[in-house]
Amino acid sequence: MRLPVSTAFVLIILSAVTFSACEERKKQESKRIQKGEVQLGGAITVALKEIPVNIDPWSMTSNSAVEIGTHVLEGLVRLGPSSTKIIPGIAESWSVDEAKSAYVFNLDRSVKFHPSSCFGNAAREVTAKDIIYSYEQLVLHADSTLYAATLAGKLKGVADFRNRSTDKIAGLEAIDDFTLKIQLTKPDESFLYVLAQPSLGIVSKKITEDCTDALPVGTGPFSIASTEPLILKRYSEYHGKDEFGNRYPYLDSLIFIERSNKSEELEAFFNGSIDLVSRLELDPVRGILEQHVADFSGRQPRYIMKREVETASFETYSIYSSRLKHLSDGFMGYRDFTQVQLEQ
């Protein structure tokens, strides 16, 4: 799913999209009723090293593509925010046989692909055939590294399918439209974590093969509203809900701009062009604190600094506007804005 490139002037598009986003936000705010102590609405701006041109799951090899893909696409299961707990995604439940080598997934019938011109401007339910198609595309088109890290050697018949000696993966079976059986080559306790990877996101065959000029769609919390600039808007029918019954995401939109390095990101942050900077190492952090100590201090600081998930060799930090609440890391430290709230 390549992101279509417009030939119009970016400034004209930005003005039009901003106006449209404001109008859409007004409509959404009039429809959304807050339940519990949460903040609904608002938009934040985020910097990426480069704007991705493709978010096909089997082609997502850059951090930027994964970050966009994880908000637009979704897999059978996913990891909970800032945790290693497996939670439902497109599948609402699953079971495994006594041998621990065959899984049956029951799809959530409320999960639908984002509305698309390819679907007559409507949403479309996800079926077991969509899951099989997506996994087949990964097996056929992923490079050797990604293939080895995901389905290689795990599914029955996967090697034969990758070698194109058979026309289907023997270990994938659509029992009915909303039930999928996966047969492994051997028991694998980590298999659900494999399915939670961004490269196992689910796509529509019709969009991928028949509507190549349409905007990419998935089932994730955000859909693509514009590609120049890259703007994701809240998917109002996303199936995920909080304890009060509010549908995720809380934000109305995410705006992405390109900044090639951390120095440019920090400059954009402190001049108010973006709302956060992530993956800062300790030395830059020390300098930031020395130069902006007042902004990070007091009962109502302007900015917040947060230690991120530790890696094997070093610590990293995020700095962000104090208006952002519940900022968390998703899979392997990738930023997850699904539950972020913006103080109005």
Characterise this structure.
- This protein is α+β, with helices and mostly antiparallel strands and 344 residues long.
- It has two domains: 1-54 and 220-344, D-Maltodextrin-Binding Protein, domain 2 (3-Layer(aba) Sandwich); 74-212, Dipeptide-binding Protein, domain 1.
- Helices cover 25% and strands 24% of the residues.
- It starts with 9 loop residues before the first helix and ends with a strand.
- Mean pLDDT is 87; it is low at 6-26.
Please describe the topology of this protein.
Elements: H1 10-31, E1 43-48, H2 63-72, E2 77-79, E3 86-88, E4 91-96, E5 102-107, E6 112-116, E7 122-125, H3 128-141, H4 144-149, H5 158-162, E8 172-176, E9 179-183, H6 191-195, H7 205-210, E10 222-227, E11 230-234, E12 253-258, H8 262-270, E13 276-280, H9 282-291, E14 303-307, E15 317-321, E16 324-325, E17 328-329, E18 335-336, E19 341-342
Parallel strand pairs: 1-12
Antiparallel strand pairs: 2-3, 4-5, 5-9, 6-7, 8-9, 10-11, 11-12, 13-15, 14-15, 16-19, 17-18
